[in-house]
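Hi L., both proteins are below.
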Amino acid sequence: MKKNFLFTAVSIGSRLLTGLVIFVLLARLWGPVDFGMFSFAFSASALLTLIVDFGFSGYILRELGAEPDSAVRLIKDAFWAKLSLLLILLVVASASGYLLGTSVFPLQLALPLLLAAIALSFADFFAAPLRALGRYDAETGIVTSTNALQFVIAGSVAWSGGSPVAVAWAFFASRMFYLALAIHVLYRVIPSLSLGKSDATAPHLTFKRVWSYGIDGALTTAWGQLDVIVVRALYGTQAVGIYAAGQKIIQGVSALAPVVGNVMIPKLARQAKSGDSRLQRTALLTAGAMLGIGSLFAAPMLAMPEQVSSFLFGEKFQGLGQLMPFFALILALKYLAAGSGIVITSAGLQAKRVISQIAAMAVFAALITLIFYNELEIKYFLLAYALSVFSMAALYARQWLAFRQQFNR
């Protein structure tokens, strides 16, 4: 376990490069308008890619953690099910681009970001089995090298005066390298792996098993991307640039959450399946560690909001400091929810996790409606977001308490 967390610590640094540092650099170089346009296209592409994501990485991580001997069959069947969704994604993306128009979702920016998001989705899919099988060393090597490459390529393009479109193509190039490397390493770890066409009924059966992961994955990603879309619609391009700068801090630090989950979900899944009495202690340690990480990063944003804003983004993003305490609150609550989510996923309560996510999203939608009709300031949007995340964490905790009572009988 200590060795796995050591590899995780290395992954953390590399994920921060692409999850936070690169976006801070882009924001400082471009200013709110260009950064807002890029962030909107980036978030829209991520939301569209939910169609092909469909929770397959989480499904592989959990199922292989519980039944490692089924690796070849699970990976092949899941791959073909995932691939079958690609055509649907392209149709929906084309329709979305047409409806939004080129002024909101320009093709020259949307295309490379969408291709980059698709490449990342498949790369994460092929990296997930490495974590489930305990090969954290291999996964760390892939993630570290590819994230470093993306930072160097995209950062160099932006630093040399590259436009958002040029940086978007740099993202695509680095993520294609990630995809190729992940496939190569996975074949080395599982020499018997074959991605040849599966049985005709296999994708259908896989969808029946993975649907809860797909909905949960879609809702989880929506929490990290949908807010930018809503802010753009409510407050305009300038506001979304300011907002996206604070949101990227949350997204960057939130990159640590899946890393912890990647280590703990297989262990918790095995304990839950075998009836291990240590499950409750492991669950509490996992949730506590997640809340601690979130609080640690939120503290400077709460204590020194203006200083953090000025240090990271400079004078172009005046006004962000006033919103920083709200972002700190959201960050801490997101880690509280993520810790609880890891635990109930490992316990096999994925369907109930989906219900909790839908309920929290309904709370968010209701609050956004109030904000829209009353024309409230953006700080009220952030408070609504924080309240919605808290409701999700509370529902997760309730599901875990119910499971624990049955587990202890």
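That was the first. Here is the second:
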Amino acid sequence: MDIGFIEKKFDEIKQELEKEVMGILMDESLDKKQTNLAMKPLASTKKIIDNALESIKMVHALKE
């Protein structure tokens, strides 16, 4: 299993999430509540990706 490749792909996904976050933060038409509501799914997605990568690394370490 190529952990480096997996990390690279997850990093690409997180970069796209960061672009979405910046778009939300720069949208002056949103009030604080709307901004927070729009950010929650993105923050959750990032956390899921981080947890998945950590789990993959743990499984890989156990196999070796």
